[in-house]
Design brief:
By secondary structure, this protein is an alpha+beta fold. Helix content is 35%, strand content 19%. It is built from 13 helices and 17 strands. The protein has a 9-stranded mixed beta sheet. Helix 5 (166-175) runs antiparallel to helix 10 (242-257) and helix 7 (191-207) packs antiparallel against helix 8. It comes from Dictyobacter halimunensis. InterPro entries: aa-tRNA-synth_II, aa-tRNA-synth_II/BPL/LPL, Anticodon-bd, Anticodon-bd_dom_sf, His-tRNA-ligase, HisRS-like_core, HisRS/HisZ. GO terms for molecular function: ligase activity.
């Protein structure tokens, strides 16, 4: 039997590295005051479909033995963490403190065709700020800062965050005389996937747009800067609308707030639209410069009324999500992540003989009591074989019980040094 495609399955050393990533992401989220929540893997289908996502991606839940139940499936595995968040906020509204700052690190499921960067099961790491009536604009700038800090700590190199504002595109299209801008936004959002000519063709064939107007729609998507010059470049296109002005000012604010970061990390990219209809302001797409065809490794944006389907209150928010599995798997494949040992064990207690088993158990227990990760070899085989086991698993230290006139001893397998050690005080040396 073989593993089902689209589901990752790491070796122990890879899983250890992934857990270290998860710990670092969690610590960084919490350092900015975000609190952890976890929602069920299963949601009502009506809730999952409330935000216009395609039902083709949702795995529905039905019992294998339904005992005559012919009803349609009403439950599904969540395909992202944003819709469950909206339902969660609505359900627990009276118990939450606003602005509500939450992070959520969970697996999600999508019925996609597996390929590089696309999985049927994967980890997402989300942060969102939701508030009553309005969310201060500085949170729009804080989101990419947090992602930048996480990637810096994880050693992710050559990363760029592409930032835009949906109001810029929507206002620009309205200024061109286009009344229904949503279909245009959806097609323009495919620019990095099907290119200029592909988008131009779809605008004309699917929306019946004249070639000249289609070209003007794409003109704004060519603007991408690391400074504030995007404002004047948009003005030079000669299109005016109140919504365009508002979007440019909001994007200018965000880019100004990010100006302290290294040049070229944050880009005002006016081709970014994000296909989801609920985005209403700032939008983000994070990409790896060294792998331009790989797609986004983090994304998100601002939304005005994501909870509107669940509660009669105005609860806007802004959030961003790191596609952990996609990013981690790609960097593993490219050998950009240095995996460590095959085990978290720090010390292997050598098992000298069956008669001394209780003594070995006691030594291992004493070391664990002081916070060390300790393993005891299960059988009294030759010492050389036990040492080989420790070496193959990357265990750095082996512990020897007292023998004849010698006390406890420990050996560093990395340096080869061996000497006496006290069970009550010994600590591994700093790497």
């Amino acid at each position: 039997m073989t593993k089902v495609s689209g589901f990752v399955e790491w070796l122990p050393e890879q899983r250890i590295a992934e857990l270290q990533w998860l710990d670092e992401i969690r610590r960084t989220f919490e350092s900015y005051g975000f609190c952890s929540i976890e929602t069920p893997s299963v949601e009502e289908l009506d809730a999952l479909l409330a935000k216009g996502e395609t039902d083709k991606e949702i795995y529905v839940i039905k019992r294998l033995q339904g005992e005559g139940d012919k009803s349609e499936a009403r439950l599904g595995l969540h395909y992202d963490l944003t819709v469950p968040l909206a339902r969660y906020v609505a359900e627990h509204y009276n118990d939450l403190v606003f602005p509500f700052k939450r992070y959520q690190i969970q697996r999600v499921w999508r019925g996609e065709r597996p390929q590089e960067g696309r999985y049927r099961e994967f980890y997402q790491c989300d942060i969102d700020v939701i508030n009553n009536n309005s969310v201060p604009q500085h949170f729009d700038a804080e989101m990419p800062v947090i992602v930048y800090e996480i990637f810096r700590r994880l050693g992710v190199q050559n990363f760029q965050m592409h930032i835009n504002n949906r109001k810029v595109l929507q206002g620009y299209f309205e200024g061109l005389g286009i009344e229904d801008t949503i279909p245009v936004l959806r097609i323009v959002d495919k620019l990095d996937k099907i290119g200029h000519d592909g988008v131009l063709k779809q605008l004309q064939e699917q929306l019946g747009m004249q070639p000249e107007l289609a070209e003007r729609c794409l003109a704004i998507g060519k603007i991408c800067t690391s400074d504030l010059s995007f404002v004047e470049r948009v003005r030079d296109l000669g299109v005016k609308s109140e919504l365009l002005d508002q979007g440019l000012e909001e994007l200018r604010f965000v880019m100004s707030e990010l100006s302290h970061l290294p040049e070229g990390v944050m880009l005002a990219d006016l081709s970014i639209a994000r296909g989801l209809d609920y985005y209403t302001g700032t939008v983000y797409e994070g990409k790896l410069v060294d792998f331009p065809a790989f797609g986004t490794v983090c994304s998100g944006g601002r939304y005005d009324d994501l909870t509107g389907s669940f509660i009669n209150r105005k609860l806007p928010g802004v959030g961003i999500s790191i596609g952990l599995t996609r990013l981690f798997a790609k960097l593993l494949t490219e050998k950009k992540i240095q995996v460590g040992p095959k085990s978290p064990t720090q010390v292997l207690v050598i098992f000298p003989s069956d008669e001394r088993r209780a003594e070995a158990v006691q030594a291992a227990s004493a070391l664990r009591e002081r916070g060390l990760n300790v393993e005891m070899y299960p059988t009294a085989i030759k010492q050389a074989q036990q040492l080989r086991y420790a070496s193959r698993k990357g265990i750095p230290y082996v512990w020897f019980l007292p023998y004849e006139d010698k006390g406890h001893e420990v050996k560093n397998l990395l340096t080869g040094e061996q000497g006496t050690a006290d069970l009550a005080t010994w600590q591994p040396s700093e790497a």
